Amino acid sequence: MAFSLTRFVGRLVAAAFLAVSAVSAIAALPAGVTQGASIEGITEYTLNNGLRVLLFPDDTKPTVTVNVTYLVGSRYENYGETGMAHLLEHLMFKGTPSIASVFQELGRRGMRFNGTTSFDRTNYFETFTASDENLEWALRMEADRMVNAFIARKDLDTEMTVVRNEYERGENDPQQVLWGRMQAAAYDWHNYSHTAIGARSDIENVDIPRLQAFYRLYYQPDNAVLIVAGHFNPERALDLIAKVFGPIPKPTRKLPTFYTEEPVQDGERAVSVRRVGGSQYVASLYHTVRGAHPDAVAVQALGEVMTVEPAGRLYKALVETRKASGVEVLTLGFADPGDIIFWAQVPLGDSIDAARDAMLATVEGVRANPITQAEVDRVRAKQLRHFDETFSDPQRLGVAISESIALGDWRLLFINRDRWRKVSATDVQGVALEYLKPSNRTIGMFIPDAKPDRVPPAAPVDIAAMVKDYKGDPSISAGEAFDPTPANLEARTQRFTLPNGMKVAFLPKKTRGETVRFVLRVHYGDENSLKGTSPRGSFAASMLSAGTRKRDRQAFEDRLDELRARLSIGGGETETTASGETRRAYLPDLLRLTAEAFTEPAFPPDEFEKQQRERLAALDEQRTEPESIAERALERWNNPYPKNDVRYAPTFDEEQAEISGTTLDQVKAFYERFVGGANAELAVVGDFDPAAIRALATELFGAWKSPIPFTRVPNPFRAPAPTVLSATTPDKANAALFGKLPLQINDESPDLPALMVANKILGESPESRIPDRVREREGLSYSIQTWLRVSNFEANTPLNAYAIYAPQNRDRVKVGISEEMVRALKDGFTEAEVATAKRALMQARRIARAQDGSLAGGLALQSYLGRTWDYAAKIDAGIEAVTVASANAALRKYLDPAGFAWSYAGDFKGK
């Protein structure tokens, strides 16, 4: 569970928008249900108790997402209640009189689930394998916890500390801390002045009767919207919804009216924060419009024009001039007028004043340097590509539509898409002149102004009139109903080898919106030839998309936008991987562009310098972060390789020296010496013509030779080396723990399925024993788990452990982990635990095979390993065959609590 908004607080829930096939009208509505608008396959219904329902049936993937959005978030909290909406989100997973623990029941069913809290709304969602049984359980659970959740004192006592740990984790992030201070400084009276996580004192001292009253007030059917999206029968689903939600009475209470309006800002505001950290940040915030306002899209476009890489104005003014290592924008469109924030990360030792001055000159310089149509067209293309991608994935709808519901109506999702199609340079220039003014700015300084130039008061928006006659686009064609069993996947897979040795796998199938994905993975070098080359391989990989001999980086990005495509290229010292996504019609050109990147890179010097600075800035930030410090210390422990070996784990200083000492000529030489297509795999999944793409792949890659032979760098087993490593990180409210136990097992070992089940019970999931004790019952950690990093080759699979916690709770966390391991070894697992773990693992595997991106990656790995889908079927069968005896035997054979190496980092001084 997490509150929402950008990467510093768990990232904004992605604004995914999708169009769907037309839905036939339901012949006979259940009693007490009325039908409302129907837009692009989404149909609205209303129950007598006020619950609004959105049904979005789609048979493309064998999954269903159920999402409930409540119109309550942090803006509804009163004095002393900050963080209450988010804390309540956590308690909603604790249980009801009929469900002992919602958290555990979701995990036992292998469902993907979460809840998020923002300023204007809270939502809960779960995605699961499509079946009448799963859908009925999810709907009954949501109806039950809507009005019957415990919200008990005993649960608050433990969950409060979990939420506080989440707060502490945020306190470790300089950008998140600064953002919270800026919101507080920018708003005089409106509750947008505090973020959803709340104040520490309010989290620690929240009053249970007030929390229960908050729940009873807002968690009611007339304040909620239920969305069901995916593979289901709409008529049966609506009948079931009426049956399980209909009996909930419509409340007699009246929701409070909020009438506070934020006054127009009348002068520059300043805020600064001084804490330990590895990077400097400067930001400039400006008040803007409501998220439903016609100008909201123009404001969003303005933010992208300023920050898009590499053409963005701020990017050119700060990053290319080496005043900052990175820039970004956060556009906050809310139910009431929100804001836009421009950010720059400035490396330690560089002038933050110079970055600030350049930022203000650029952002507020639009009057002298107007926004151009070419700039708007560029960011529009990116946004429309984003729409295209998400229109084809109904699984995202249940979560994404929550944002538009919070703005006032779900149909705003489509209206804003239409506005993106029409937004012009004149529109963007207009909002820039209206809102990017010194008097409307919050930054790290104050300048008196005798004659402030103020923005106009926020105008009301008549949303009802806006959406009344809206019809939307014609629905796009649907894909086939595809059964992702290993047998069916194998029957549909086509495999062949190109003349140069590249292995190719195709899995053609009809998809919504004719989407298609591919993965290209290139291997190179060997243990001896790669000595002393780090980090040239990773630089060479990242430079492939920085420009080619035919087009510079901007032209490369523009071509991707023209193709409505996404292409990611990256890698390390031994391989480079490209992942692409587009539509059927654009796949040939995207493959040509990918081949151009791999075979005709330009290696522009300015792009190399920018990447070098970005890496150094990121490394500086890691130096003070507990998680980075603890993880690196553990990577270095028991690492026997010399510094020139690609398996060596460097210190921060050593890595800094490697990055700083790498030259562009060395990167070019690495590429010329190693990179080729003879030892590579290409996998394509989705809607495409196999014959045409086979011919094209042969044309593009068939003659692409590898300069030198490839032999995989081995990673042999090293016996456990128990130790306890500890590092002190001053002024960090959150601490981290990493643990590792090497196991002599790989993915061909007969014991693997049983060990997977054992780890699932022990610590892999939130309902597992270790997280259940440390997080749920003792409230010591927001995030804690164990996991297996299964080797495809040598019998060398580490069992890993991870936790974050308050520094003073270090010993209690360690004791909890250790005692649960010892208890499992002594008492073993139960029949119920093994059955639940098997079911959850199988559900997760089925869901993963329903994702085309996962299928493409899986096919590429199969080609590399010389396998087919029969291997996946073998693992499935192995999991199904696991017994209590075999799970306990695997645990006792491999788990040795005394063999772990542990690494701690935190502000442990005096604790």
Look up the CATH topology of the domain at 486-701.
Answer: Cytochrome Bc1 Complex, Chain A, domain 1
* Strand composition percent: 15-25%
Total number of helices = 32
Describe the sheet with the most strands. Answer: 8 strands, mixed
Q: What is the CATH superfamily of the domain at 486-701?
A: Metalloenzyme, LuxS/M16 peptidase-like
In whole angstroms, the N-to-C terminal distance is 28 Å
Structural class: alpha+beta
Give the overall form: globular
Query: Percent helix among the residues?
Result: 40-55%
Rg estimate, integer Å: 28 Å
Q: Report the count of strand segments.
A: 24
CATH architecture of the domain at 486-701: 2-Layer Sandwich
Low-confidence stretches: 1-24, 445-450
Q: Looking across the biggest beta sheet, what order are the strands in?
A: 1-6-7-5-8-4-3-2
Give the class-level CATH name of the domain at 486-701.
Answer: Alpha Beta
User: How confident is the prediction overall: mean pLDDT?
Assistant: 92
